[in-house]
């Protein structure tokens, strides 16, 4: 996706010399819209990844707490001889 953003920006920069022509203006608008859509999608993906990571670490912490409570509350019998 980041490569696509770079390619669209490159295409826009190549259209700069002819940006005054009517044909180029419609193409420039389309490219800008596509570029904005891709950047919005990237931002959304990054936000979702952060939320997912925070939820995973929170769930992992809860499992650790549950395991610790189990170990502390249980009564293990140790064998004196094997």
The coarse overall form would be rod-shaped
- Figure out the total of helices: 2
> Mind telling me the C-alpha Rg?
28 Å
Beta-strand residue percentage: under 5%
Strand tally, please? 0
For the record, give the distance between the C-alpha atoms at the N and C termini, rounded to a whole number. Answer: 61 Å
Unreliable parts: none
How does the major sheet shape up? none
Helix-strand pattern: HH
Q: What is the residue-mean pLDDT, rounded to a whole number?
A: 82
Helix content: over 70%
Structural class: mainly alpha
Can you offer a commentary on this structure?
With 82 residues, the protein is mainly α. It has a domain at 2-54. Helix content is 79%, strand content 0%. It is built from two helices and no strands. The chain has helices spanning 2-14, 22-73. α1 runs antiparallel to α2 (22-73). The longest helix has 52 residues, at 22-73. The termini are far apart.
Map the helices and strands.
Blueprint: H1 2-14, H2 22-73
Structure at a glance:
This protein is an all-alpha fold. It contains 2 helices and no strands.
For the structure shown, list the relevant keywords.
82 residues, 0% strand, mainly alpha, rod-shaped
């Amino acid at each position: 996706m980041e490569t696509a953003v770079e390619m669209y920006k490159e295409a826009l920069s190549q259209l700069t010399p002819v940006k005054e022509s009517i044909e180029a203006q419609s193409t420039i608008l389309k490219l800008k819209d596509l570029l904005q859509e891709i950047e919005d999608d990237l931002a959304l993906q990054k936000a979702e990844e952060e939320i997912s990571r925070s939820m995973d670490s929170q769930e992992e912490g809860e499992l650790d707490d549950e395991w610790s409570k189990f170990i502390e509350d249980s009564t293990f019998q140790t064998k004196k001889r094997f």
